[in-house]
Amino acid sequence: MIVNVENLxxxxxxxxxxxxxxxxxxxxxxxxxxxxxxxxxxxLLNCMTNLLTVxxxxxxxxxxxxxxxxxxxxxxxxxDNRILYGDLTGYDHLKFICQAQHIDQSKIKEVxxxxxxxxxxxxxxxxxxLGMKQHLLLAMVIINEPKLLLMDEPLNGLDPTSAxxxxxxxxxxxxxxxTIIVSxxxxxxxxxxxxxxxxxxxxxxxxxxxxxxHLNQYEVSVSNTDxxxxxxxxxxxxxxxxxxxxxxxxxxxxxxxxxxxxLNENQIEIISIENQKVGAEKRYRELFEGEASV
Length: 294
Ligand SMILES: Nc1ncnc2c1ncn2[C@@H]1O[C@H](COP(=O)(O)OP(=O)(O)OP(=O)(O)O)[C@@H](O)[C@H]1O
Hints:
The protein has helices at 41-48, 90-101, 106-115, 130-142, 160-175, 187-193, 225-235, 256-265, 280-288, and strands at 3-12, 15-25, 30-34, 56-61, 64-65, 75-78, 148-152, 179-183, 196-201, 204-209, 214-222, 240-243, 246-250, 270-277. By secondary structure, the protein is of the alpha/beta class. Helix 3 packs across helix 4 (130-142).
């Protein structure tokens, strides 16, 4: 088992922040951790990596107790950039990790190129921009080729090119069997990374595979939009125009078949029908709309 968290509870004084979390991950994959500010994502990741003590429950990573220090070689955690040392250079940080984890220092060059931080590697971190710090944090967590990678808001401050680069790196790591748990508020990026999302709500996790969640919503391409609009209006069938030539239809009282029949009966050619998958943002809105974040 890659991750086995059972009934994890965490309290800050009287506030119960994690209310009995259960996570079982048996095969390598990317999982997104999504939830409003203050919902407990960082607390969960900090508990998993033993930076915080838990009040109840158990955590196993890669078949070992999360307190086992040998996990250090196989589990990486990308945290907030406050863990960086302003007086040290990026190179110093990476060299330190190589020494501590017995990693060949030739890996530094490789990882620096991969992340794209060559030009400022030898600058002191206090002179780094937010995005540069994020690049360094990424380099620091992938240099040991972890089996399990936990990431708290890794996209923080990244420009679009860097965000795409980070996405490609994560997808490549997943391809070679790295399990990644990534917390993020960037739901578009999440959609590009994974369909498996753990929504954090009221200190509990709601695990969902968006692949299984299909709205009854379809995009129907037709040859003659004007005529289609006319006949649908005449029949009182609800739709919206996604773009020229594409009608968006959501099944309700009117079934998809009735929608198609209406177009067929009026000799309107249907070019394609696509089922619309639910994206992370839509699901998030369904789950959290109207709820104030902490
Ligand atoms: N050291 C602490 N002492 C007391 N309360 C804390 C501490 N750290 C976090 N909390 C509280 O625990 C709750 C969860 O915080 P946490 O940082 O885990 O949320 P989060 O989901 O990571 O939020 P964000 O999306 O804003 O990063 C919040 O109510 C927060 O105020």
